[in-house]
Here is the input.
Amino acid sequence: MRVRFAPSPTGFFHVGGARTALFNWLFARHLGGTFVLRIEDTDAERGREEWLNGIVDALTWIGIDWDEGPYRQSERGKLYADAADRLYADGNAYWCGCTRPAVDERNKANDIATPGYDGYCRERALSPRQGRALRFRTPTEGSTTVVDVIRGTPVFEHANLEDFVVLRSDASPVFLLANAVDDIDMSITHVIRGEEHLSNTPKTLLLWDALDGGPRPVFAHVPLLVNEKGQKLSKRRDKVALEDYRDQGFLADATRNYLGLLGWAPGGDREILSVAEMVREFRLEDVKSSPAFFDERKLLHFNGEYIRALSLDDFVDAARPFLAAGSWATEEFDEGAFRALAPLVQERVKTLTEVPAMVDFLFLSEAPVEEGAWDRRVVRGAAAAELLAGAAEVYSSCEWAAPVLHQVTASLGERHGLSLGKAQFPIRVAVTGREVGPPLFESLEILGRQRSIDRLLRALARLEA
RNA sequence: GCCCCCAUCGUCUAGCGGCCCAGGACACCGCUCUUUCAAGGCGGCAGCACGGGUUCGAAUCCCGUUGGGGGCGCCA
Here is the structure.
């Protein structure tokens, strides 16, 4: 049992591609088959090295490994040329000198509203020459049945299939040819790919047989990933780059888990699944046939679940790259302080990019300034000046521990007829700069007595100025 | 225009003829817990597109309608 994932290098890694790769990989691992990685870079201009690296990095990030490859179509030109020669020699293909505009014009003149080729050169027996393309001679009768694990057995009448190009006029192979040749050459048994390929599958099969490819592969056309309007996710209008999610603080495991549930479910009520569980339970027959909307909000929820499930060490490691985006001077970062606050941060963020703003007050010389918060909770806060002054005073002599700070602050609030919930606001804003963040008293404890009091006094001075 | 695919809460889905006047999750709305915000707990809102069959019985099977999507390129 052999499957392949065959992305074309386009500069970024599409989430739909990631899902297709994942299904291929789960299928292979579940059955103990072979997963082949093949890069479809027939379009020479696109065969850029960094594009390949992007694919390799993205797959690696999400936890997919391959048993063979990456093969590159750009390095396998001979195979495609030979196949094209055989097609021509066997009479399964012919040379065509038509240009696209000419075809369109004829179709228009004949009142044919089909964009397909009209077969103009089919019987002209043209010889190969510069500027001519090679077209497959599609049978005029009969039909091709696709065997698809997910879709059943759709039947395509040959009469509806045009004579499609297999070799461009510059002698380069098109996708259909290279794809079929490689799948035959690599003994692919199961072709798992996006539904957009279903309509072209009879062409693939016709080529397969014309090239004596042997037993036809079994197909599995997985449902499309769509946007909120139900349209196929596209680079132009939708956010589709896997790298973007990674850079925005999504964990690979959460993303993998979410992607795996788009069009497939393990049955029952479970959703959070480890890789091992997915491998164990994944079955191609259980993949749905209807499109799935890629819902970032649910991904966000999964991410929160996975972040909270991380061990302290893993969370610190995962957050590290994102800490670089903090507004503090690098040398001011204090790993110990971060680790101390991390457990409280961990359960409050849904993405890693939210981490810096939750801890920056620890590493900045002064509290960051959030004007809205200052205005709401200090300038217009009830008894703000009294609370700041009072806190500065009691904090200077009480034991410096969160429970004690909690207790003395509560008493301070009581004296002004305020609940702790209200009383902590001016202090929170004065010290951390923000009205929301990790629990205040733990934050104070970690920040330290002197720095906390300094900030309280500074806030007081600003308020009275 | 032609061909193909699809159809359970707003979204992702469970369901594969009786266990379902349809279960879970996200989102949303209450309540609760609470030092902010989250997280957690409890509760709520909300769906089998429509019409015919088949069957003792249909969300589940068949046909049609409607709606949505994909493909038809010297892109992949």
Q: What stands out?
A: The CA atoms of residues 227 and 237 of chain A lie 9 Å apart.
